[in-house]
Amino acid sequence: MDLFLLKKIITMFLMPINIILLLLILSLIFYKNKPKAGFKLLILATFILFITSMPPISDTLMAPIEDNYETFSRSAKQVDYIVVLGCSHTTDYALPATSQLKTCSLQRLVEAIRISRLHPEARLIMSGYSGDDAVPNAEKMRQAAMSLGIKDKNIITESFPKDTEEEAVLIAPRVIGTNVVLITNANHMPRAINYFERQGVSPIAAPTGYWVKDIEGDKAWNYYLPSANKLSQTTTVWYETLGRIVQWFKSLYR
């Protein structure tokens, strides 16, 4: 089996929702012959679901990850490249390219266009492979950027990288020694910067797609109720944590 696919499968099974579902299935299996064990598994699944979907807990876990880098304003020096890391989309030719992008890709595209307005001298590097789609994410991002006024000659696509590590390895030779802005979601930025720095590139971070906003501000009463959106946020925290653990282990063998 392909190692990349194996990594994705293992990661999927380690996500909170899948752990909860496994515990619920086990509780049903044990319910008849071992009711106490089944009940304990049910309580554990309910507890994990509750804490992972609570906004105050999820925000507390996410905020330190997103606060590692400030948002991009304007570079004192000329920017040579704006690197936009790949995320996801679903090709549907009945829709404009911007509507085919999933939220993470759209967030990164908006930030790329904002920064390109500040630094029109920069070229955009769109990255990302096709996955299960017929069109690479880099190409779909190029199409969306062009529909929003970016000229084709200012866009470079890297359609082969499957993950952040491969993106850094393939993009670094092109941009090393230049002034580079790196765009990805705020929760993903620490890991992305680390990979690029290992390849000898020291990009300026341009985080986007923040989950946590105004964490110290006043909250409405429903902020303290479980939320499916916050379960997704906690899942993202766990995914990034696993990614950084893997990154750390890899560094031990280099």
Sum this structure up briefly.
This protein is of the alpha/beta class.
Account of the 3D structure:
- The protein is an alpha/beta fold.
- It has a domain at 81-208: HUPs (Rossmann fold), CATH 3.40.50.
- Helix content is 53%, strand content 9%.
- It contains ten helices and five strands; from the N terminus they run ααααβααβαβαβαβα.
- It has helices at residues 3-13, 16-31, 35-52, 55-66, 97-100, 103-118, 137-147, 164-175, 189-198, 228-252; strands spanning 81-84, 123-127, 155-158, 180-185, 204-208.
- It has a five-stranded parallel β-sheet with strand order 3-2-1-4-5, sandwiched between helices.
- Helix 7 links the parallel strand 2 and strand 3 (155-158).
- The chain is elongated and about 70 Å long.
- The mean pLDDT is 94.
Fill in the keyword field for this structure.
254 residues, alpha/beta, Rossmann fold, 5-stranded parallel sheet, 10 helices, 5 strands, 9% strand
